[in-house]
Amino acid sequence: MNPRMTQAKGKTRPTKASAEFRASSLAERKSKVDIKDFAREFEPQEGIAGLIRSLPNLLAGKEFKDFIDLLREAKRKERAILFALGAHVIKVGLNPVLIRLMADGWISGLALNGAGIIHDFEIAFSGRTSEDVDEQILDGSFGTARETGERLNRAIREGAEQERGMGEAIGRMISLSDFPHKNLSLLAAAYERGIPTTVHVAIGTDTIHFHPGASGEAIGKTSLADFFRLCSLLEGLEGGGVFVTVGSAVILPEVFLKALSFVRNSGKKLENFSTAVFDFIHQYRPSENVVRRPVRPKGRGFYFIGHHEIMIPLLAAALAS
Asked: In this predicted structure, what is the pLDDT of residue 311?
């Protein structure tokens, strides 16, 4: 029962306010929302820049604008801007957007998981990717594409022999190939621009691992080399750099946390930088291992929720405006 209600003859009635009750003035009360922070009407002639400015200075609206400002400042200071991408980002058609970001200087390093190299290769090789797992897992044909297994495993073996990391080895292979759609390859675009790309593999998570040409020694050697290359890239974050994870729930957040620990354990100062996660749901490891733990106590972390195929083009357009 409401404590301000009393029982009388089977009915309830309000009691009088306590004489000790102290009211406060709304004008003097601290409020978290002020109309000065409201969204404003978007004027189409102002373009994307006007759209971003029209967002409310509240919650994610303010954070998105703050994040764009931090990216601009990182680029101005020539600090590292690193993008760690889950494979889904490639599958939803964002390679052209990301390649443009590389070309315009908004990405100074890439990190992919093992599935990322598969989809990037298949796009370059055939212009098509992403299997129907529900159907193909039933008859055992899932992950059996001959060209994917043969070409990627060969590139990884050759990369190990040449002391290259996996990202560089595959980027070089695609760049030097005659694949009809290699202009849409993230790995090739990064290789041609001298942008370091690292690939972080968990053995058994990728279909090319059960192909005859797979070498555990070569996979481990090239991916471990990429881990330490990522560690070197993280050193460039100090002083205002930005680390962005898009669509990786486990592998890349875990790799980032360990690489960060290694850098700090090596005696390098790494405390003044920002991080961000873009994903379509809120997940534990990206939240803890990218947004919260690494940036304490001086940095800042952001978590933006929305479909990759909308959020990343919006981010790119905001930066280009």
From this structure: 97
Q: What is the 3-state secondary structure (H, E, C) of 225-264?
A: HHHHHHHHHHHCCCCCEEEEEECCCCHHHHHHHHHHHHHH
Nearest to 198 by CA among 236, 225, 234, 162: 225
What pTM was estimated for this model as a whole?
0.90
The one-letter amino acid at 245: T
pLDDT score at 132: 85
The whole-angstrom separation of Cα 243 and Cα 254 is: 14
SS3 content of the chain, % helix, strand, coil (to 5): 50, 15, 35
Containing H/E element for 151? helix 146-161
- In angstroms, the CA 78 to CA 80 distance is 7
Residue 85, strand partner residues? 112, 246
SS3 6: strand
**250: its two tokens:** 């486990």
What would the pLDDT profile of 243-283 be if each residue is shown by its tens digit?
Answer: 999 999 999 999 999 999 999 999 999 999 999 999 999 99
Q: What structural domains and CATH numbers belong to the chain?
A: 47-320 (3.40.910.10)
Distance CA 89, CA 129 (A): 12
Element (H, E) at 113: strand 109-113
Residues of the chain scoring pLDDT < 50: none
Burial 215-246 (b: 16+ CB within 10 A, else e): eeebbebbbebbbebbbebbebbbebbbbbbb
